[in-house]
Design a protein that fits this description.
Strand content: 5-15%
EC number: 4.99.1.9
Helix content: 40-55%
Number of strands: 8
Mean pLDDT: 95
Radius of gyration: 21 Å
Pfam family, one: Ferrochelatase
Largest sheet: 4 strands, parallel
Catalytic activity: Fe-coproporphyrin III + 2 H(+) = coproporphyrin III + Fe(2+)
Binding site for Fe-coproporphyrin III: 59, 128
Order of helices and strands: EHHHHEHEHEHHEHHEHEHEH
InterPro entries: Ferrochelatase (IPR001015), Ferrochelatase_C (IPR033644), Ferrochelatase_N (IPR033659)
Distance between the termini: 29 Å
Number of helices: 13
Structural class: alpha/beta
């Protein structure tokens, strides 16, 4: 008999993601959505879109979200969790507002939200909350019921996120030539962001002013240590490692987190390192930044150097990650019902906060953001 679990007060889960084009004609309109308000000329967007055109104009992210959606529904059903799962994107169909409109039409009023971004930052957390606020405001103007939405906590250090990545690093090490394996370094990669945004990531207590990166960098370093420790425990080899960055964009005079992965490969090759594992710990799935910046650009740089590299897998739709989402949902549901559930986390930082406090990952220009302590919208006092 399946195990019965209590998701109350939630009556639905929303998988909230970035979105991506699904054909050549989608690329420029998608990029216009992503860059809306920045005044970037269409011709420049066509240049930026070349990465997508290399893959037929299709980003892998939507297909991967469909796989995760199926994995979540399967896991919920197997554990007796009677809760529908919906999917909406910030920048491409299915759009967030359309999905929320469908959810309220279907009768849902208390919605838990899982964002496909595991770490604290403006673009990885607060911007999703701003998009939720915009969508709720649209529903209200349309005269529709406005649900209460609660964003599940950051899951960067949940075992169901970390352990599949550790297994991925072990598998990547096994792909390297045997004579280079023991001396291989691990390059843990994530999306570079401006140092100013990194320094203000996380709660106000996490903020820094010296370019060291606030909660964004601290959380990635914590995950990298956990994975490196797991690899050492499994292999008996203490592989040197470093957190490095990829996918930088924006004006060159603005400081961004460094070093870049390609620069890192050059430096290690010059130092005589025999092989590298590239481990994209900042990404939930193998979307465009992984497929192009690592599998294409960085792999080409390694080939140019004659440096053996292997890239470890992201979590994707791993059943352990689906189980982690179920765990996060039930944990938050229990908290909302007034109990104190067990909160799973690896590493030194412990489980993240449920409710983003005032000043958490602030925007350059203040905008309403739902699902946080600073939300004063129409559902702020919605009954449980």
């Amino acid at each position: 008999m399946p195990e019965q679990r209590d998701p109350r007060p939630y009556d639905a889960l929303l998988l909230l993601s970035f979105g991506g084009p699904e054909g050549p004609d989608d690329v420029v309109p998608f990029l216009e959505n992503v860059t809306r308000g920045r005044g970037i000329p269409r011709e420049r967007l066509k240049e930026v879109g070349q990465h997508y055109f290399l893959f037929g104009g299709v980003s892998p992210i939507n297909a991967q979200n469909r796989e995760l959606l199926d994995a979540l529904r399967k896991d919920f059903a197997e554990h007796g969790l009677d809760l529908p799962v919906y999917w909406g994107n910030r920048n491409w169909a299915p759009y967030l507002t359309d999905t929320l409109r469908t959810m309220v039409t279907d009768g849902h009023r208390r919605i838990a939200v899982l964002a496909t971004s595991a770490y604290a930052s403006y673009s990885g957390c607060r911007q999703y909350r701003e998009n939720l606020a915009d969508a709720l405001a649209t529903l209200r103007t349309e005269g529709l019921p406005v649900p209460r939405v609660d964003k599940l906590r950051h899951y960067f250090n949940h075992p169901g996120f970390v352990r599949p990545m550790a297994d991925g690093v072990l598998a990547a090490l096994a792909e390297l030539p045997e004579e280079t394996r023991a001396g291989a370094h691990i390059a843990f990669t994530t999306h570079s962001i401006p140092t100013a945004a990194a320094d203000t990531s996380g709660t106000p207590d996490d903020h820094t002013e010296d370019g060291t990166g606030g909660a964004y960098v601290a959380q990635h370093l914590d995950v990298a240590r956990s994975i490196a420790d797991a690899v050492r425990a499994e292999t008996g080899v203490d592989h040197p490692w470093q957190l490095v960055y990829q996918s930088r964009s924006g004006a060159p005079h603005i400081p961004w987190l460094e070093p870049d992965i390609c620069d890192h490969l050059e430096r290690l090759h010059g130092a005589g390192v025999p092989a590298i594992v590239m481990a994209p710990i900042g990404f939930v799935s193998d979307h465009m930044e992984v497929k192009y910046d690592l599998d294409t650009e960085a792999t080409a740089k390694a080939a140019e150097l004659g440096l053996p590299v292997a890239r470890s897998a992201t979590v994707g739709a791993d059943p352990r990650f689906a189980a982690a989402v179920r765990d996060l949902l039930l944990e938050r549901a229990a908290t909302e019902r007034g109990t104190t559930p067990e909160r799973c986390a690896l590493g030194a930082l412990g489980p993240s906060h449920d409710l983003c406090p005032v000043g958490c990952c602030p925007a350059r220009t203040p905008r309403p953001a739902a699902a946080g302590a600073d939300w004063t919208g129409p559902t702020a006092e919605a009954p449980a």
